[in-house]
Amino acid sequence: MTRPTEPLRRRVRAFVDNSVFGGVFDDEFAEDSKRFFDQVASGRIIVLVSNVLLREILNAPPHIQGILASLPPEQLEEVAVTPEAVALTEAYLQAGILSAKWRDDAAQIALATLAKADVLLSWNFRHIVNYDRIRLFNSVNLAQGYGMLDIRCPKEIQDAHADEQDI
Q1: Which CATH architecture has domain 12-157?
Q2: DSSP string, 87-127
Q3: Alpha-carbon separation of residue 83 from 87, 99, 101, 140 (angstroms)
Q4: 0.70 exceeded by the pTM?
Q5: pLDDT tens digits, one per residue of 97-112
Q6: Mind listing the pLDDT tens digit for each residue in 23-43?
Q7: What CA–CA distance (Å, rounded) separates 87 from 98?
Q8: How many angstroms separate the CA atoms of 132 and 125, rounded?
Q9: What is the DSSP string of 59-88?
Q10: How far apart are CA 64 and CA 18, in angstroms?
């Protein structure tokens, strides 16, 4: 009996905020963060990188900076800050979803939306991975003519085929 061939899987394009990098060194998030970066290294996931993320990483301790530096360059995709991204960020702030103090969080949502990321990943449950805020971000996206953005934590991004023997 021949085994069916595995369907071709498209690589996931994930916009990742700095909390996922820091999560590698946090007892609560380390296992899932490391698993995520293993999937990046294996070629399954492309990480979308913006100037906002780079600025945050450059202000982080060297061991966190090292995670980004260790990722294969072919698994990284640059996302530019554009006037359109600035306008969408302002729309989130004007809608009261976040205050101006959290502009970088709003900017990352805008950048991921405009890049048409498959998912935005974060461990920031207060400002980003938050049911009410996700609904509000997406309502602004739809009102502005953009698509919806899937926002999750890295725990939810796992290779469905990794544990097939358990199924």
Answers
A1: 3-Layer(aba) Sandwich (3.40)
A2: HHHHHHHHTTSS-GGGHHHHHHHHHHHHTT-SEEE-S-TTT
A3: 6, 20, 20, 17
A4: yes
A5: 999 999 999 999 999 9
A6: 999 999 999 999 999 999 999
A7: 15
A8: 11
A9: TS-HHHHHHHHHS-GGGEEEE---HHHHHH
A10: 9
